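Field reference: sequence -> structure
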Amino acid sequence: MFKRLLSNMSWKQSVALVTAGFALTLPLMHLLIFRDGYNLGFYWALDLCFVPVQVLVVTLIVENVLGERERAAKFHKLNMVIGAFFSEVGGEAIRRINEFCGDLGEVRARFAVDMHWGREQYQEALAFARGNSCTLDHDETRLEELKHFLLEKRHFVLGLLQNPNLLEHDSFTDLLWALCHLTEELAARPGLTGLPQTDVEHLKGDMRRAFNLLVVEWLAYMEHLKRSYPYIYSLQVRQNPFKQDPNVVVQG
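Structure field:
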């Protein structure tokens, strides 16, 4: 009966039951052996007085430390996922959409990340990216190339959306949804030539939304690499998708 009861319990319930059993059995054994009910009651009452303090220590300090460690571990895993995204899809998507920008020179200058960028430069770039409403030119050839690229990467992006670690990163999830939506919009049209101007403007709006979210997440990821992984940061700086002719070869 007792074994069946334990088998139906979770491990936490089993530990709680065993601990409660010890808490009742040991004082009784003490009382039977030493027959000193006064001192037993005194120290038991004294322990009860400090229970609120123990609860406070466990909930506010120990639990907070464990929570911070868990959040740090999740943040590390999440940035690994984000790094894989920009290596596989994000960097090239930025480069391809960036080519539609009418004010390409200013955009490249604003996001010319280098090894010397600090907190101030990243904050300025993030502010520009969040408020950026760059003018996008209509280029049917490039639009067709963008469509094929996004269709090739569709399964990769959809796979990332199934990652449970992304549930706590709303902005990156929004970016993936924006890319999925842009992919679906482009794929839903049998051809991208001869579209009416209203439809062209609609597609530009979808591209602009995806582009802004891409740049914001890319800047946040680059700042994280600068702080935590300078050797990876060096490579990403050389592969900056805003450069006209990126070159990974380290120049003397």
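Note: The chain is about 75% helix and 0% strand.
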